[in-house]
Amino acid sequence: MSESYEIIIIGAGPAGLAAAIYAGRARRQTLVLEKGVPGGQILLTDWIENYPGFPDGIAPFELMEKFRQQAEKFGAEFKMDEIKEIAETDNGWQVIGYQGEYKSRAVIIATGSIYRKLGVKGEAELTGKGVSYCATCDGAFFRDRVVAVVGGGDNALEEALFLTKFAQKVYLVHRRDKLRGVKILQERVFANPKIEIIWNAFVTEIVGQERLEKIRLLDRQTQKESEIPLDGLFISIGMDPNTAFVQGFLELNEYGEIKVNSQMETSRRGIFAAGDVTNVCPKQVATAVGSGVAAALAVEEFLSHLE
Questions:
Q1: Pair 145, 206 in one domain
Q2: Distance between CA 152 and CA 69 in Å, rounded?
């Protein structure tokens, strides 16, 4: 038997939690569904120091826990479930999870995206301990240190250039003999004396005890192995939006992100989306929060017109 709500929010990262605060404060019966620990990808970050209002920075879990507590204070309900499908009903939507089924008049999808992993030994253990997936989030912690970026696309080149503002030296590790990023970024990388490119190389292992110490590389051409001592490693090989459960149901762009308009509306009336899962949100906590707020306000207007 399905439980009924006015608003269902799928995902409890920054966007979903911000939407829940506004939806609850509007006195809407709100359910937040999350398959894991509330917080999302931000929990992979070591420390947040670029979110407004925290001049000394704040631990990601602490910030997300404050978001969750605030949403609960305004009446939002939380359940743990992974969603596998959304189906249309006569007067709204049915959200189908592995643990239950839930009905609502409106849905906000805020399932975020997943950083692509290298899948090598030491990666999981040292994430947040020198290994990062976001230079703009963590770059400032590596002032005057030696770091490396793995990747060769636009984002990897941008991250390498960004890191030169802080790091003493930046290695760019790429598995091919030419970069994939746009020419202007390539020119800036080649011209920057702080950046050294390591061509045709795979990271085979990330090594460290309490913190990252070094990486092991394999040269694709010579099959020779080498090591580089590092203070920080930034993995920038792309992100995948969590949209598998809406493929063929909602309109997605070429990257699999949900297409939304300025009101955060998707291709289906009554279904909205916010945060990294959409095609309009830069991958930052503050922008995810803003898009979650925008989605909640749009849902409130949508529901008001139905009444």
A1: yes
A2: 40
Whether residue 39 is found in the same domain as residue 85 = yes
Q: Please give the angle made by the CA atoms of 249, 18 and 289, to the nearest 5 degrees.
A: 85
> Which residues are CB-neighbours of 61 under 8 A, at least 6 positions away?
39, 43
If one counts every other C-beta atom within 10 angstroms of the C-beta of residue 29, the result is: 16
**Considering 204, 235, 266, which residue would you say is the last residue of a domain?**
235
Residue 250: give the domain boundaries. Answer: 3-114+239-306
Give the DSSP letter string of 217-239.
EEETTT--EEEEE-SEEEE-S-E
User: What single DSSP character describes residue 244?
Assistant: G
Number of separate domains in the chain? 2
Q: Catalytic amino acids?
A: 134, 137-138
Instruction: Give the whole-angstrom CA distance, residue 85 versus residue 276.
Output: 19
CATH of the domain at 143: 3.50.50.60
Structure tokens at 21: 């605060």
Q: What distances in angstroms separate CA 188 from CA 96, 142, 183, 185, 279, one per listed residue?
A: 48, 21, 9, 5, 27
- The first and second tokens of residue 254, run together, are 């070429």
Same domain, 126 and 75: no
174 and 255 inside one domain: no
- Residue 119 clears pLDDT 70, i.e. is over it: yes
pLDDT tens per residue across span 259-276: 999 999 999 999 999 999
pTM higher than the cut 0.70: yes
